[in-house]
Amino acid sequence: MLLRGGNEDVVRRVELEGGWQLLRTSAGHEEGVTRLASAMAKCAGPRLPLVMKALVCTQSSVYEIQRVTSTAFLAELLNSNVVNDLMLLESLLDNLAARQKDTSASVRRLVLRGLANIASSSPEKVQAHGPQLLTAMIGGLDDRDDPHSLVALEAMVGLARLLELVKRQDLRSVLLHVAIRIRPFFDSEKTELRSASIRLFGHLNQVCHGGCEDVFLEQVVAGLVPLLLHLQDPQAPVTNACRFALRLCGPNLQHEELAAVFQKHLQEGRGLHFGEFLNATCKLLMYHFPELLGRLAATSLFYFKSSWEDVRAAAPMLMGFLVLHAEPEHQPQVDLEQITAVAPRPPALQLLLKDPAPLVRAKAAETLGRLVKFA
After folding, report:
1. CA–CA distance from 319 to each of 255, 312, 335, 354 (Å)?
2. Model confidence over 242-272: pLDDT tens digits?
3. How far apart are the first and last CA of the chain?
4. Nearest to 238, CA basis, from 185, 180, 198, 265
5. In angstroms, rounded to a whole number, what is the distance separating the alpha carbons of residues 160 and 180?
6. Burial of 271 by CB count in 10 Å (0-12 exposed, 13-18 middle, 19+ buried)?
């Protein structure tokens, strides 16, 4: 059909990008449709208004696959500046926004992708549509009907693209809600959810610089332990996201020394000596925030049962360094007897000494030796 219509360039482009092969499989169909839409936006712009008109009609189809297909195509069009040339932007946004409550999680996810694509095609238009876009993304974060959290994942990726483009006054009312809502994903079993949520947390901190640090300090403190420990995450995308987020959290801790340590040790592409970095960080945390010892130690205890060996090993290290650098008058915030004693029941560190992972046992023994001096 495309060849008979004189669209050889579209056919070739889709072929080069593997789109035809993807369209042959149910698993790859959605991505194949996306690549077809991208090719048409680049090579067959004048054809799009009629195609779009036909696809909009199928968005209310009783068949889910038709709604998914049409939404995937229309969402990708918003990734191209051709929507501005053809004056399709407003109608596309309206059509996609109307499908936010679709019964299909795939459709809801693709709607969010399309709305976020405005950041690529029309960044200058984001401010005008800021409240609508933010409301849609937050609705995706709060989606309760998607057991795999793929809608929430799309919302987090979309928010990361949009945050720096929306008006600051539009952001202020949603920053805390977003920060609190994404926190559980830091420890998700899915790498993509951990990585996206932590990276978005970094972007939230970035837009707070110079404006709302006091309001956001509590969120930074709440996220500090998981970000530090997930620097030892087994998945590189997560460790890279932690580096990114911690570098952007630094200024919001309102102490230049801490921000400098994060910048020095956590640059992308640089090797990290985790023990050295953790020691330096805990020393400064206990100097500037001694009242947080009990809270940070309690959060560290939670990770003694982490399913990831390296994170489990890092948790007692963090607790040990916190107590090591705490002044004697603040150490009662931590019940060292409960952590180190053998009776009446095995406490956290004693259990880690029996962990099946040698690294965890070694770090637990090292921390136990450090803590016993203060018990």
Report:
1. 21, 12, 12, 18
2. 999 999 999 888 889 999 999 999 998 888 9
3. 79
4. 198
5. 15
6. exposed
